[in-house]
Amino acid sequence: MKILKIICVILITSPLLLSAQTSTLDIQNSNLKWTGKKITNSSHYGSLKFKSGEVNFSENLISSGKFIVDMTTISVDDIKGSGKSRLEGHLRSDDFFSVENFNEAILVINSSEKNGDNLKVMGTLTVKGLESNVEFDMKKSGNSWTADLTFDRSKHNVRFRSGSFFENLGDNLILDDIVLNAKLSFN
Fold this sequence. Notes:
The protein is of the alpha+beta class. 16% of the residues lie in helices and 53% in strands. An 8-stranded antiparallel beta barrel has the order 2-3-4-5-6-7-8-9.
């Protein structure tokens, strides 16, 4: 009789266990790339490292989640030498991301919905202490996910050569959209 009760409990609770699953980001096997462009179509790109991440899957959707990025790890990968270190220092400065005062960027996932084979994800991005709503696609690829998110830096008070804050920049204008490409692996 005792075994029958245990089997009944397992049968009753197993759908609940299968419908909600929390997955932790595998920081070592995940990566985050950024790209910024000028009005002339020239660009710079680099990478950032995650501090942590977690998503809650429910019925093949992401119901919630949170990713924390270590802004002190911002690197420039398209140039080398003194130009690389100079640009990395500039990106960490108050002209851009004020890393000394804001060493984390946070993405909170609020919900998702099916979008063909992808998930359309809705969330809140916090950069330099300022929040903005974002939407982006995530796609499952084997045991990992890819995500492409574009955010408007002007909504986070990242002003350097931004047409949202300054006029007549000509060829010196840097576009407000910053593109993030992530490969996410979960434990």
